[in-house]
Amino acid sequence: MVIDVLGVGAGFAGLYLLHRLRSLGFSTKVIESAGDVGGTWYWNRYPGARCDIESLDYSYSFDRELETEWQWSERYATQPEILRYLGYVADKYDLRRDIRFSTRVESASWDHDALLWRIRTDNGDEILSRFYIMASGCLSLPKTPDIEGLDRYRGDSYYTGRWPHDPVDFSGKRVAVVGTGSSGIQSIPIIAEQAAELTVFQRTPNFSRPAYNGPVSAAKRAAFGAGPAAYREAARWSRAGVPMEANATRALQASTQERLATYEAAYASGDLLAFGAAYADILLSPQANETVCEFLRNKIRSIVRDPETAEALCPRDHFYGAKRPCLDTSYYETYNLPHVRLVDVRKEPLRTITEKGIDTASRSFEFDAIVFATGFDAMTGPIVAVDIKGRDGQSLAAKWADGPKTYLGLTTHGFPNFFTITGPGSPSVLSNMAVSIEQHVDWVSTCLTHMREQRLDTIEPTPLAEAGWVQHVNDCADITVFPQANSWYMGANVPGKTRVFLPYIGGVGRYRAICNDVAQQNYLGLAFTGRDGARCDDGLICRLQPDVSMLLHFIESLGMPPRETMSVTEARAQSIAMRTGRPPGPDVGEIIDATLPGANGPLVYRLYRPSSRGPHPILVYFHGGGWVIGSYDSDDPFCRDLCVHSDCIVISTDYRHAPEARFPAAIDDGFAATCWIAANAEVLGGEPSKLAMCGWSAGGNIAAVVCQMARDADAPLIAGQVLINPVTDCDFTRDSYAMNGSGYLLTTSLMQWFWDHYADAADRTNPKASPLRAPDLRGLPPALVVTCEFDPLRDEGLAYAEALASAGVDVRYLPNRGQIHTSLISVDIIRSGSGARAEIAAAVRGFFQNGTFISDCRRGL
Ligand code: N01
User: Fold this and answer.
1) What is the rounded CA–CA span in Å between residue 788 and residue 786?
2) 455 exposed, middle or buried (CB, 10 Å; 0-12, 13-18, 19+)?
């Protein structure tokens, strides 16, 4: 008999999957290796095990009746209570009759002729199912500790992730605990209450703080009670699956006192998510994060009496949150007990397990019992533990050997009709699992219903959509502090496992919107076959860099009128207002504001000097703003960044603006300023004859034209030019205008407005306005041309790079995927632009070091 769906796992995910699919009329069975329901809560019975997301949140929301029937006795329920809850759910919806317990799925292979999965279990059965769904949990495969001599030990060994059902009594015993993750931190205080001696072997200290457990707070009950449906809906669209106010301020914008007050409140809340949400950039900026780290280290120092032990317990090798933080009850206080000691395995490496205990590099310990709280092969481990073979016998383990490749963390190419619930590439372990599980199950159920209605037999993602999602998952992680830690999020805890960030960090609400979007766009990126033929709308669901997308949403939320509908005065005022409160950029050695002679009067300039010893090469910088808006200080954070990373003096010089001074005033000023800077290089602290040009947008236009003028005048000598999203032509018909002319801040109509203010129609084709139209581009300085994918100016930047290369100029072309016109100058706002900013600085250094500016032209642009 062929069933519709076979699910693996009877935890939170499998139970809801079974209930939902069954109620939609799909014949569904679940296989579970444990003797009963519960999943992770069946196995993790170690002393002190409890949830660290409040139970009121960490519970099902699909049935109001269930919500009213079940009352949690504590804020953070214990493992037995959570297990009782899941048992209650299984009974209420009569789920056990469709679950086969004490049975393990060993293999699953896709039969492409029959369009079904053949699933084999450890009792020899073969189950035939149209769909195969792994609801096997993210932390369900305990990791075998990589410690020599495990089998040698004659005392009692325990694994937190496979704790015995019968109570374990440590009274009067000498006990060791290896591991100080959540399981260790929860169990250590309870084991210490019983044991005669407790020795904790710690390799990496973790950030932990008190859970302040107790009854569900009155505030929480009130928030929930006021409108459970609205409360749950807020959770579904929140960042981590729990309704929570986010602070839009950046940590370093607040005073030390304000920060301290914020962190004290976060600490007192006993809420796992409070520090991550304390400021907007805690999980993004190393500097912001360090303020939390030090606050928490001070808390440890204030609790643990022995200073050496306190320091050993202070995490220093990872940022707060980058390894999953913990909530505890009296964890640090435990180290003040006379019979508890800490062994820092970093200083005193674990050598081997012996018959009687543990040998470190310097000591031998004897124990009656050893507790291994050594963690899990997370996220991918439980999935590839089953021998899953897709189309043409392709093995999932082989496909994922270099890291999991999924579309939305739900599906993977080559494995038709296969889904993972909270799989890698979905928010899963970074969220309230209950919310993420319901969202996945609901999405899959809706998809299967759609397939039934549309007479579709198979579904799988396209290679394009999958590659795009993997890229997006990595893009999201890369702007955070997470990938820098040796965490299980990165697979770093399992020897030999490929290091790649496993979950999706873009947030629960955003992820939900993406999944909904995929479905609404005719299941974009998913290929179907069916009785009426095949169907696929291929494409990428997230093309913008994640921080760009957030910025655009934020700006949209402000509801500002388009700049081109304003007067020039209003547009300039708005531009200045938008700059207030932006991150300042890095500190430089010195900043000087002064004036220099322009073509028609003095111009203000700002000089940024590196902190290293001079003299330095000089980079002349022209700001953007369509020749109409901005000034020498409008790109201040970017100029600082350039100065620090290129180790050059950066001089951002003003030029006259339109419409008061129309074309060619800006160009004439740019050239005059450059000549003056070249002539006064030594006085300015620069190295004579080491001068390069840089500009962004209209500033890029000025920089390009000044290079042409300097070449024609034989002076000054310019070593190189960096043109960032430059205006190089007045032609609006290129593809990038059609593709990106609306929705990405710089619009076609705004460019029209700029040109109209700047130059008469007859002047626009003049090479001094449109440098791409210069009859001869030979002999120009080496150039780095930088463009952004979602910029109307992208194609004219590329055209200029190509024209320079054709003329024999050394050119490097640096396109930026997922970025918009303003991305690269938005230091510490668009963090995904930091790689390009580093490349720009490296190119500038290369201009002044013979042979190090390697152009694409020489490599073939
Ligand atoms: O596992 P872990 P866990 N020698 O991987 C150490 C969830 N959870 O079971 O960090 C010496 O975090 C290892 O050291 P290092 C939660 O998501 C939730 O505690 O690799 N030490 C680390 O200290 C959590 O994050 C709750 O250097 C060795 C520890 O063992 C996840 O499950 C409760 C070692 C493993 O920590 C996993 O937590 C419990 C070796 N050879 C768990 N090998 C809730 O509260 C490993 N270690 C809901």
Assistant:
1) 7
2) exposed
SS3 571: helix
Confirm if 525 and 464 have CB atoms less than 8 A apart: yes
Q: Where are the alpha helices (DSSP H) in 116-197?
A: 182-194
The set of residues, in sequence order, having a beta carbon less than 8 Å from that of 810 and lying 6+ positions away, is 782, 783, 853, 855, 857, 858
Number of other CB atoms surrounding residue 524 within 10 Å: 19
DSSP 694: E
Residues in the chain: 861
> Does residue 803 sit in helix, strand or coil?
helix
Tokens of 500: 């790649």
Q: Cα separations (Å) of 231 from 61, 62, 101, 620? A: 10, 13, 35, 54
> What residues pair up with 463 in beta bridges, in sequence order?
none
Report the atom number in ligand 1 closest to the C-alpha of 186: 33
Q: Which residues contact 212 (CB under 8 A, 6 or more apart)?
A: 75, 268, 269, 270
Q: How far apart are CA 494 and CA 497, in angstroms?
A: 6
Q: Which atom of ligand 1 is nearest to the CA of 180?
A: 23
Question: Distance from the CA of 158 to the center of ligand 1, in angstroms?
Answer: 14
The pair of structure tokens assigned to 146 is 């990589």
Using alpha carbons, list the distances in angstroms from residue 87 to 6, 13, 27, 34, 572: 21, 13, 22, 13, 64
Strand partners, 157: 370
Unique residue bearing structure tokens 């899941």: 86
From the list 649, 713, 708, 712, the residue with the least C-alpha distance to 848 is 649
How far is residue 474's CA from residue 267's CA, in Å, rounded to a whole number? 30
Please report, as a single letter, which amino acid is at residue 524: L
SS (H, E, C) 301-362: HHHCCCHHHHHHHCCCCCCECCECCEEECCHHHHCCCCCEEEEECCCCCEEEECCCEEEECC
- Which atom of ligand 1 is nearest the CA belonging to 51? 48
What lines the ligand 1 site, CB under 6 Å?
Answer: 51-52, 139, 145-147, 160, 178-184, 186, 201, 203-204, 324, 345, 350, 373-376, 429, 488, 493
How do 105-111 and 116-121 pair as beta strands? Answer: antiparallel
Residue pair 805/681 in contact by the 8 Å Cβ criterion = no
pLDDT along the chain (861 residues), means of 10: 97 98 98 98 97 97 97 96 98 98 98 98 97 97 92 96 95 98 98 98 98 93 93 97 91 96 97 96 96 98 98 98 98 98 96 97 97 97 98 98 98 98 98 98 98 98 98 98 97 96 97 98 98 96 97 92 95 94 94 98 98 97 98 97 98 98 98 98 94 98 98 96 98 98 97 98 98 98 98 98 97 98 97 97 93 66 63
User: Of the residues 45, 186, 493, which should be mutated to test ligand 1's pocket, given the most ligand atoms within 8 Å of the CB?
Assistant: 493
| Whether 655 contacts 603, CB under 8 Å | yes
Residue with tokens 């390697």: 854
